[in-house]
Design brief:
The protein is mainly α. It has a single domain, classed as Arp2/3 complex 21 kDa subunit ARPC3 (Orthogonal Bundle), CATH 1.10.1760. The protein has 10 helices and 2 strands; from the N terminus they run H-H-E-E-H-H-H-H-H-H-H-H. A hairpin with a 3-residue loop joins strand 1 and strand 2.
């Protein structure tokens, strides 16, 4: 049986640790339920393979936030802790799918009640196709684990300097893996998308994700710096 002194001796998770895990899980869930919608953003110019618009899934921004959260977490708490979060998140994807589909298949009122949406629309929105689910999970487990590995490889190679390099470098390579696997499996291998359209999808999504990786670098510095300053404060000052 655990004594009160043992409980007091254990270090409680920090606010930053809980917040980063919360952000990671929230963004991951949002990405899973919004992946089926395709977005198109017009450009003031044309790009090779992309044309005048970026086409990407509705999950692109939410999924980009998972890499932001995992990079901050890896920097603060180490490779092993970040790998645990990533792989627990992978398992939680199946929990999410089980909960969503159990709700879809559960018996409903025979007619629409006030505030109840059309059941076919509910199934259509939340019940992503098998190809999208398989592609999303395959892309997730490969890219997220690569992100943690690449982040710490770059950290070791630079002796802990240049946080910006490991943030952008790890995210840029992992997002490329994620995009190629997601489009290749979901839209080509298990879908009917032509190779030309798939190339446009990959290019558009990757440019967007790469832009997010560059733009979020100052926020990574801010989060890591704030967490380290707080952890350096004397315990008497930090006590609630």
């Amino acid at each position: 049986m655990t004594s009160a002194s043992d409980e007091r001796g254990r270090a409680a998770p920090s606010i930053a640790q809980v917040a980063l895990v919360g952000l990671f899980v929230t963004a991951l869930v949002a990405a899973q339920v919004t992946a089926a919608k395709l977005l198109a953003f017009g450009l003031p110019f044309e790009l090779p393979a992309v044309g005048a618009s970026l086409v990407l899934p509705g999950a692109a921004l939410a999924y980009a936030l998972t890499f932001f959260a995992s990079d901050c977490y890896a920097e603060l708490y180490g490779r092993r802790a970040a790998t645990v979060v990533v792989n627990v998140g992978f398992v939680m994807n199946f929990v999410l799918l089980a909960l969503v589909w159990s709700t879809i298949e559960a018996p409903a009122l025979p007619q629409l009640a006030p505030g109840q949406i059309d059941l076919a629309a509910f199934r259509s929105v939340l019940g992503s196709s098998t190809s999208i689910v398989v592609a999303s999970l395959a892309a997730y487990v490969v890219s997220q684990n690569w992100d943690v590995f690449a982040f710490h490889w770059l950290r070791d190679a630079t002796d802990g300097d240049h946080l910006w390099l490991r943030n952008v470098g790890s995210t840029a390579t992992s997002q490329l893996l994620d995009t190629v696997i997601f489009v290749g499996v979901g839209f080509v291998l298990l879908g009917s998308t032509t190779p030309e359209t798939a190339v446009a999808l990959v290019a558009g999504q990757y440019l967007f994700k790469l832009g997010i990786a560059v733009l979020d670098t100052p926020f990574v510095y801010a989060v890591v710096g704030a967490a380290r300053r707080r952890s350096a404060e004397p315990q008497a000052v930090r006590a609630d």
